[in-house]
């Protein structure tokens, strides 16, 4: 829902008078159709969308480093790294801004928890999971921290506004024409890619839940193209709530949706950490085998993660626009819990089809 909302906002850059819900609906229909065609089509679309994102971020990092060290695009004057500590340093107005940004930071990292969620379904978890976890670390280091480091080195904090993308500032500084339009297209394609992946994964999750008798039997079926069409359709129907929110409250839709999504992420990460703690206790009791790839610092690190998750949840309460998530989240969990009581044990026991 957050991604189709973002698409609705990005399209308004070119067409300011278009209602926000319309591009959101068009994006949803496009994602739905793509996921129903074939897995090969999904993979091809995701490949090119990912290429756009990666190339743009790498271009920003390379161009930014050139300005930092050589002064290219800055009248030949190397920018250096002094902007990182000038103008009041990292916390010019205290820690409050950092704390209240954690909600959006958590939302930005949604998706990495799928490594933990899918751990039980990996064919060779001892080999594949360490590789996946290590690759996530390097991707965060390069694409998130790397790009942020370059941006903060190029521009002091008081020159960056929420009204202008930092990517636009960098590309505009080196004289790239139509920088704003290019970046807007890139972030819109990134949002479409994320929504596309979300619908794809949700259909497969419902398929797996059905085969473990935790979801209705219908979700355990695949069509002649080996696609879980009913699960994908159910996912698309729920996404219509996002379109409705963009119609009713377009100004607040994105904040509401991202806040609720953050609550879901807090719960998911909490369950992952709790499960790991239970596993370590089972190892000590001799009830489970130890693995070679271990989390250092347990159980202290586990409790630190839980404390951080609780902190983010508490901070959501202090903003009236994010506080709604702490109300909607538990209600949604209650609905899911009640629904589960009706569907558990009613799925299919057939082995999941390859999709």
Explained architecture:
The chain has 355 residues and is an all-alpha fold. 68% of the residues lie in helices and 0% in strands. Helix 1 (2-11) packs across helix 2 (21-37) and helix 9 crosses helix 10 (229-248). This is Amino acid permease/ SLC12A domain-containing protein. It is a multi-pass membrane protein.
Oligomeric state, counting identical vs distinct chains = single chain
Count of the domains: 1
CATH superfamily: Amino acid/polyamine transporter I
Shape: globular
Structural class: mainly alpha
Low-confidence stretches: none
What Rg is obtained from the alpha carbons, in whole angstroms?
A: 22 Å
* CATH architecture level-2 label: Up-down Bundle
Number of helices: 13
How far is it from the N-terminal to the C-terminal residue, by CA? 24 Å
Give me the count of strands. Answer: 0
CATH topology: Amino acid/polyamine transporter I
H-E string = HHHHHHHHHHHHH
Average pLDDT: 85
Describe the main β-sheet briefly: none
């Amino acid at each position: 829902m957050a991604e189709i909302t973002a698409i609705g906002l990005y399209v308004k850059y070119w067409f300011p008078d278009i209602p926000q819900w319309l591009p959101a609906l068009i994006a949803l229909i496009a994602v739905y159709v793509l996921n129903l065609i074939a897995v090969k089509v999904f993979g091809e679309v995701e490949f090119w969308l990912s290429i756009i994102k990666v190339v743009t971020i790498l271009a920003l990092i390379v161009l930014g480093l050139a300005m930092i060290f050589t002064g290219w695009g800055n009248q030949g004057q190397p920018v250096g790294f002094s902007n990182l500590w000038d103008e009041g340093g990292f916390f010019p107005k205290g820690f409050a801004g950092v704390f209240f940004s954690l909600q959006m930071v958590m939302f930005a990292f949604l998706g990495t928890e799928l490594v933990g969620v899918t751990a039980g379904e990996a064919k060779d978890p001892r080999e594949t999971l360490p590789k996946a976890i290590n690759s996530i670390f390097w991707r965060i280091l390069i694409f998130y921290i790397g790009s942020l480091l370059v941006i903060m080195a190029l521009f002091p904090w008081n020159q960056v506004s929420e009204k202008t993308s930092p990517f636009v500032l960098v590309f505009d500084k080196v004289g790239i024409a139509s920088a704003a339009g290019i970046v807007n297209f890139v972030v819109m394609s990134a949002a479409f890619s994320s929504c596309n992946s979300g619908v794809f994964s949700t259909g497969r999750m419902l398929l797996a839940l059905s085969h473990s008798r935790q979801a209705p039997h219908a979700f355990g079926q695949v069509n002649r193209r080996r696609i879980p069409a009913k699960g994908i359709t159910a996912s698309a129907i729920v996404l219509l709530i996002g379109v409705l929110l963009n119609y009713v409250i377009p100004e607040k839709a994105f904040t509401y949706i991202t806040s609720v999504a953050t609550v879901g992420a807090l719960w998911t990460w909490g369950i992952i950490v709790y499960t790991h703690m239970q596993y370590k206790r089972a190892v000590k009791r001799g009830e489970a085998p130890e693995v070679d790839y271990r989390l250092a610092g347990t159980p202290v690190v586990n409790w630190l993660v839980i404390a951080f998750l609780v902190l983010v949840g508490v901070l959501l309460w202090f903003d009236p626009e994010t506080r709604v998530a702490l109300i909607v989240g538990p209600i949604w969990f209650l609905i899911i819990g009640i629904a589960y009581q009706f569907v558990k044990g009613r799925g299919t026991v057939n082995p999941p089809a390859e999709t």
